[in-house]
Structures are given as structure tokens and as C-alpha cells.
Amino acid sequence: MSSTNISLTRFLIEEQRAGRISPDLRLLVEVVARACKSISIAVGKGALGGVLGDAGANGEASINVQGEAQKKLDVLSNEILLEANAWGGHLAGLASEEMDTSHPIPDKYPRGNYLLLFDPLDGSSNIDVNISVGTIFSVLRCPDGVDNPGDEHFLQPGTAQVAAGYCTYGPSTMLVLTVGHGTHAFTLDREVGSFVLTTRGMKIPEETREFAVNVSNQRFWEAPMQAYVGDMLAGKDGPRGKDFNMRWVASMVADVHRILTRGGIFSYPLDSKCAPKGGKLRLMYEANPMSFLVEQAGGAASTGRQRMLDVQPTGLHMRVPVFMGSKAEVETAVRYHAGHD
Ligand code: AHG
Ligand code: MN
Ligand code: MN
Ligand code: MN
Question: How is the cofactor bound (predicted)?
């Protein structure tokens, strides 16, 4: 590595030296990054690693608390993150998309002051067709005086996050991280086995001509969403006065990474199918961490009617509608919703 390469370890030591993170938070991010390297190796093996396909035994699907059929890699990624974070003494408890409730750190290990939430494998419907997937994580403080955290102690708004990030397992494996002072990207140097800082201070362009939504749900959308997307599809002769492009990977990590890199707006709005549950995407370990990263990169994130990071969680697996990305475009989407309420 040339001397100009700053490793994740050096970046975190410098953040700690600057007083922006604690030693335990530095350890936490290092541990999660190391677990993501293990997940990247498992994902990269594909069919050769016996990790593709659905979890479960004897032809019985393994259904998680979300009502989804788990993939083997959902379960393996979850186990890797649980094992990596159990013994370090930096956490009081953890919660996962793949676990019904949160879990305190086992009694045989020391406990720390942080709570870790994660989506161990995001976009898992793509894993069997070799399309980018990822891991998303969010870090909260355990409330003072709470030694044995329960679900209720995780129910903090997104503004309470002290760190958030994702790892995207794509052509390259990249870790994107915020500790509240900008959003920074690290690329895995596989020969050395360490993450190297490749973008300090990601910045999302304020305007965009690119939107990401699953348009197959169009007939189920609320009126504001119909109008908002309809006007974009009308192109330069329509009310928006410009042509738009569309991308939809169906891995939130891949779509949001593109938007952090070149701008755009990601949305998973309410539709009549998911509205009874409050939306499709989960607040605590998808929408909130991604919103923290996007805001720290100069973007915006909303439910369409409220700043995402201000939402008061009512449950560990609470779902929300999501609009995030280029600030001016998110504000436009919010205006469409305001105009229709
Ligand atoms: P997960 O694989 O963790 O359950 O998340 C999948 C999510 C998100 O990654 C993606 O944006 C969205 O589901 C895709 O939804 P559709 O399949 O309905 O397009
Ligand atoms: Mn899932
Ligand atoms: Mn997900
Ligand atoms: Mn997942």
C-alpha cells in the first residue's frame, strides 16, 4: 500500500484522537468491518461455498420474524455478526432483521455501552442471481443505568445514532461509514485484507435526473406518489421540464450506494399492499442508518411526510415509507405529498 493510503484502522484512530469517537466505538466499527470481510468471503464463494439458496431443512422454509423465507446467507451473515460482537466488551445488546427480539450480550462476556442493530444481508433476493447485496448497521448508546437492555431500549429516533454504515458486496467490497462527521467510503484491499479510505467526505449532488423505485407497484401507490412519478415519466415536455432515468437493483445498499456516489432519489413508498404494515422497509436497521449516511453526505431522507431521523420508533421491526437522496429531489417528493394531504 502506498503511504498515502489511509486504512480504516488509521482513520478510526485519528477520529478517536480528535475526540469524535470513543475507544469502544472504534473497537465496535473495527469488529463490524472484520465481520463484513468474512461475509464478503462467504458471498464471494457463491455456488462453490454451499451458501446459496433458501435456509431451512427437509424442504421446510425457514421464515423470519418479517414473514420472509430466509436465505442461507441471511442466517450465516447473522451468525457471523453475532459471534464477532459477543466477546469484545463494547456492546450491551444487539438486534437484527433476522432475530425476533433483541439480545443482551451473554452474561459470560463483559458488556459495554453501545447497542448494535443490523440487517446482516440486505437484498438477499438477489444473492442467487449474483447481484450486489450488502450489510447495514446502526449504533445507538445503551441508556445510562440499563445493564440488561430489552427491545424498548433500542427504540430511539435516528437522531440518536452515534454511527451507521453499510458494506456493499459488489464488484469491489466497500464499507461506507459515518460517525456523525461526514460520510466516508473505504474499499477492501483483498491482497492486504484491510479497508482503505477511498473517498473522504462523500457529497450527494443536490439535483438529479435519476430515480429508483419498483414501478411494478405503481397501481398500488397513493395519489401523491402516482403524481410524483407520473410527472417524472412525462419527461422534459411534462411539469418537471426534464427527462429522468430509472434504476432499481432491489438491494437497498446497492441503490443507495449509487445515489451517494452520483446522486438520485431512492423511494419505497406506501402502497396498498404494504401500507397495513406501515411500509416495506424497516426503520431501525435499514431506513435510519441509510438516512444518517445520506444526511451526512448533504442529502435528505423522509417518510414523505416527516424527516426520517425524527421518527419515534414504536417497535424493533417497525416499517416506514422511504424517500432519500438528492436534497432538492427529496424536497420535491415531500411537496407532492404535502399537496395531497
Ligand atoms: P432484505 O433483503 O434485507 O429483506 O431487504 C430487501 C429490501 C431492500 O434491500 C430493497 O430495496 C427492497 O427490499 C426491494 O423490494 P422489492 O423486492 O419489493 O423491489
Ligand atoms: Mn430480508
Ligand atoms: Mn434489507
Ligand atoms: Mn436482510
Answer: Binds 2 magnesium ions per subunit.
H/E element holding 335? helix 327-340
pLDDT tens digits, 256-315:
999 999 999 999 999 999 999 999 999 999 999 999 999 999 999 999 999 999 999 999
Tell me the C-alpha distance between 181 and 278, whole Å. Answer: 31
Say how far apart CA 317 and CA 101 lie, in whole Å.
9
Distance CA 47, CA 334 (A): 43
Residue with cell 447473522: 78
Q: How far apart are CA 219 and CA 229, in angstroms?
A: 12
DSSP β-ladder status, 210-212 and 265-268: parallel
Helix (H) or strand (E) holding 93: strand 91-96
Cβ atoms of residues 319 and 283 within 8 Å:
yes
Cβ–ligand 1 contact at 214 (below 6 Å): yes
Report residue 337 as a C-alpha cell: 405529498
43 ligand 1 Cβ < 6 A: no
Q: What integer pLDDT is reported at residue 1 of this predicted model?
A: 42
List pLDDT tens digits, range 168-182. Answer: 999 999 999 999 999
| Length of the chain, in residues | 341
Q: Is the CB of 252 under 6 A from ligand 1?
A: yes
Q: What atom in ligand 1 is closest to the CA of residue 268?
A: 11
The whole-angstrom separation of Cα 157 and Cα 327 is 21
8-35 b/e with 16+ CB inside 10 Å = b?
Answer: beebbeebbeeeebbeebbbbbbbbbeb
Binding residues for Mg(2+): 97, 119, 121-122, 286
As a whole number, mean pLDDT of residues 122-141 equals 97
Rounded to whole angstroms, the Cα distance separating 171 from 94 reads 29
The pLDDT tens digits of the residues spanning 182-200 come to 999 999 999 999 999 999 9
Residue for grid cell 444487539: 94
